[in-house]
Write a structure and sequence with these properties.
The complex is a heterodimer of chains A (328) and B (337).
Chain A lengths: L1 H11 L4 H17 L6 H26 L7 H18 L7 H29 L3 H20 L4 E2 L6 H5 L1 E2 L2 E2 H19 L1 H11 L1 H6 L4 H27 L1 E2 L7 H11 L11 H20 L4 H29 L1
Helix pairs in contact in A: 2-13, 3-8, 3-11, 3-12, 3-13, 4-5, 4-6, 4-11, 5-6, 5-11, 8-9, 9-11, 12-13, 12-14, 13-14
Chain B lengths: L1 H6 L1 H20 L6 H26 L7 H18 L5 H25 L4 H20 L9 H4 L3 E6 L5 E5 H19 L1 H11 L1 H6 L4 H27 L10 H11 L11 H20 L7 H17 L2 H4 L1 H7 L7
The chains are: A mainly alpha (328), B mainly alpha (337).
Chain lengths: 328, 337
Amino acid sequence: MNALAARFNTIFGADMAGPFAALAAVLIFFGLASPQFMTGATLGSVAFQLPELGILTLAMLLPILTSGLNLAITFTANIAGLTVAWTLQHYGGVDAGPGAFILGCVLALAAGAASGFAMGFVIAFTRAHPILVSLSMMIFLRGLGEFLTRGGDVSGFPEFIAPIGYGSVLGIPVPLIILLACVLCWHILLSRMKLGFSAYMLGSNIESARYSGINTRKVLVLVYTLSGAMAAVAGIIMLARFNSVRVGHGESYLLITVLACFLGGINPFGGFGRVLPVFVALIVLQFLSSGLNLLGANQHLATAVWGILLLTVMIMRWVWAKFIKQLT
Amino acid sequence: MRKLILSHATEFALFCVIAVICAFLSFATDRFFTLGNAFDLLNISAINIIFAVGLLVVLIAGGIDISFAVAASVVQYVTALALQGINGGGWVSGFLIAGGAGIFLGLINAFLIHQFRIISIVATIATFNIYFGLLMFFTKGVSIYNLPDWLTTRVILYEREMADGSWSEITLPVLVMAVCAFATWFFISRTTIGRQIYAFGDNPEGARRFGINIGAMQYIAFGWLGLMAGIAGLMQAHYAQEVVPNALYGRELDVLAAVVLGGARLGGGKGSVLGCVLGVLLVSITQNGLNLMGVSPFAFKMIVGAIILVAITLSNSRIETLLPMLAAGKSGRGQGR
């Protein structure tokens, strides 16, 4: 048993055990409870619903690793979506060409990165608490979006955008491919690149990171800029999936992304945690809500169960640390 | 006087900012500097201040709570149903039920945090989702409109006829707010337990070695916030004359921003009731002023967000970091960084 655990740890890493156990529990429970659960339809719906929440969670992940938070991600995504929508409208709305869409995406990424840059700048240079800075950025962006759209929808996009939200390539949904690409980017960033390493160091102890020659301000600014840009990607996908943009779309995801990060074993104080367990945790959350849907519950009950799941995982960790570790 | 200002730097800075904004608004609009408007401001801010003084205690104790606003929604619903169950009731039973339910929900948070050593932001994000999810699931999003008459009737404590014939009045939530703010001030600055909460928030390990009961601190801080959230929930139901399950959803972040703006430190050990009241007032005075100046309501939040962002930036940065030349000139050829 111990040898098996050791092999598991060398292949996947010790932090994968919790998320995988939760995944197995969810699959077994709903597989027994509902005959329709283990079918392609469930898998398909999970694959299409996962990306929005998943990419937003990636945007939340980086700041948490540096012991911060980015509470502005959902509204950054909205603003990015609005940027794309307006670029398309400027070039003819429904008749706009792919060039306009690409220009819109570039502008959206720039807008997302700019909001992240502003936050990172304030956090790095004034040492104000990230929760507060991103919170006021969130209030500002929400107000900006509501001011510019007057609280209404922006819609009327060319037809070639729909496949980004609903299309498939070789049977794999396009949004899922985008999510996988983003997960890969983040994984490489955090495990292979200097910036990722510095981000971990910052999260463990910002003072000692500074004394060991890491430019902490630069790292903080870059981390929040990347977080904003990733939120913009989520905004573009939401635009394609809803075929409209409204400020407030995806607002309820905000605290769920934090929940997913903690569920994936990210240390709430920063410095420790990896991308892949978070990805597995996201799959667990999505299977949970799909399974509950099949059993006739609605999204609100699923939200409550997500909260219960987070508490369960945290209590299990406490039990593990208190009782089981002492025995071995 | 100088010592007083230095020891209350954040409060003093906030007070100056509010004074400047008020002076500007008094000249820019003819409606701002009137008794009626001041009463309006108090009536509007009352509920947020009740939330804010509760959250302040948890922040001082080194925790954070995301769940209190949805907990207040749960309390509203429970109170409305319980009052229907006992055929009406009155203010006393209303406060008892709302306060009791609020304390219970707060103690759940404290139990999770203390018993299982879960970090407060993780625990309260989980309970936030649980409270809100279950509330929406069981109520199916249906609002309650048939509240008891005593709850929906406006209670006017003081009223005065203005020159133009309109009535300006102070309503019950303002009195409740004043009582809550005074009680919190007395509790955290004049009682032993209150001082222990400061010590605990500043240095939990130090406080433990000093003989302070850590578990009790968590339960008291979150219980106090629960009580305040329950009272604020009841007041909101009284003010809105209805119970809407998602009416308070999202309020937690607005209140958190105002409290931290008022000088409470995320991480514990610092914060005052005066600062937190001023923080809430700054936000509502700004909104009120923009409204009177005829700015589009859609722009309110944008400007409020920008003001909070600027206020944080200014209050957290020393003059030296903002203006390097000035600092270099002041300290001669000191260490330039």
